[in-house]
């Protein structure tokens, strides 16, 4: 196995106790990381809550601050990457908590297959996660690992490009060669890069042994807004998403979730499934057609209203 060094790169905004648990877990990994680099949004909040004093002393941690209006899913992560010299860039979100001390080791093992550009982790439902969301996590992040390449497009479709920066490690040389993340995107910077890597002949590896707790109990309206941003990102990058529509995969998820609920004798959850699925689909379709909507409505529908302040552009 290559002796690959690793840095952890985390954009944060008003972090809570999950972030503290994440950092503590990183401090006890069997494969130690070089350092953790944090891009914090809103320096005044960080100072007010004395976050520097809450950082574990047994980790090398570097923090820099960005203004709320400057944050971008792609550009901010590129700034994080530019501060690292490690072989592997492990991007995480502030609410992804490692299950074990083997997270980094398993992620590094995912690069053993030649041509692998990215290795992403399995997301396990956190405590208190609702049953429908539990099924969704297990649908998107199964127990079996898989390597994906251009040859898998006929079978997997849009899933070939699936990758999540909730916890994903990138080989720095490939990341730089392909130009990193797009500098302006409302969402999906991870899948856009994965598509670019796949088309360039690289592989994306899903490492089911590397696991983090990560799930959300969103309301219907929150799902609508989240999927609105998802639709916007797909509309803005037709070269990635136009030929591989996501609707078929979404319908498959709804159907399998309904069967799961009936099999487990939870039919009273079906109305909730219908409501949440409808919100997701409506949000997605509105996002796909956002260019035909009034700008004031677009900002109200989006989970990222600051994205629209300076004018949308790639």
Q: What gross morphology would you assign?
A: globular
Average of the residue pLDDT scores: 93
- Structural classification: alpha/beta
Total helix count? 14
Distance between the termini: 38 Å
Number of strands: 9
Would you give an account of this structure?
It is a single chain. This protein is α/β, with parallel strands linked by helices. Helices cover 42% and strands 18% of the residues. The chain has 14 helices and 9 strands. It has helices at 17-27, 43-48, 51-54, 75-82, 103-109, 131-140, 153-156, 172-177, 189-199, 220-236, 238-241, 247-263, 270-288, 295-301; strands at residues 6-13, 36-41, 61-66, 88-92, 97-98, 116-124, 146-148, 167-171, 203-213. Strands 1, 2, 3, 4, 5, 6, 7, 8 and 9 form a 9-stranded mixed β-sheet that branches. α6 packs across α12, α10 packs parallel to α13 and α12 (247-263) packs antiparallel against α13 (270-288). The two termini are 38 Å apart.
Keywords:
single chain, 314 residues, alpha/beta, 9-stranded mixed sheet, 14 helices, 9 strands, 42% helix, 18% strand
Helix and strand layout, with pairings?
Elements: E1 6-13, H1 17-27, E2 36-41, H2 43-48, H3 51-54, E3 61-66, H4 75-82, E4 88-92, E5 97-98, H5 103-109, E6 116-124, H6 131-140, E7 146-148, H7 153-156, E8 167-171, H8 172-177, H9 189-199, E9 203-213, H10 220-236, H11 238-241, H12 247-263, H13 270-288, H14 295-301
Parallel strand pairs: 1-2, 1-4, 2-3, 6-9
Antiparallel strand pairs: 4-8, 5-9, 6-8, 7-9
Helix pairs in contact: 6-12, 10-13, 12-13
